[in-house]
Amino acid sequence: MFTGIVTDTGLVNRVVRESSTHSLIIAPCQGHSGLSIGASIACDGVCLTIVEKSADNNWFRVNLSPETCACTTLGAWQEGQRINLERSLRVGDELGGHIVSGHVDDVTEVIAMDSVGENCILACRMKTSLAPYIAVKGSVCLNGVSLTVNQVNQTDFTVNLIPHTRAVTNWGEAKRGDKVNVEVDLLARYMARFREVETVA
Fold first, then answer.
1. Which residue from 43, 45, 168, 190 has the highest number of Cβ atoms inside 10 Å of its Cβ?
2. What's the pTM?
């Protein structure tokens, strides 16, 4: 489990594409002395397992299954790409964002970016089937970052990116047309399922 509060960014140093499983070599910008093999880490919102790391903690390797490549943006990553990183939540840690599983629901597209003072209003478009899980003042995870929904218009929604968020995540490099990993609020998903079962009963 994660919170959507990015603790570091990293650079994709190497992409190894094989027939069944792809591998990524990722270099954390700040380094992580506490990383261990077998640990979970969210990479742009996707929960992955560290399978190898350097002795000096300057890089770690993760594997990507065909499912991960097909359902997220990771299959199209290139060397030199900057990504958001978050280590898994530990019991007793501060829950600064919202509960995030690292299981991406959809890949959407940035359809607009508008500056409002120092802030940036970001607009995305969801699949019709996922739109009911997006609510005004609710939470959504975009590329691993916990954000609050400002407005909803059918399948479109907006969030506000403050200067701090853009400075410490890869959202500072975002542009219109970028593909984005989206995870809807876990509580919204279960509430929708509860209502579905309740209606059938």
1. 45
2. 0.91
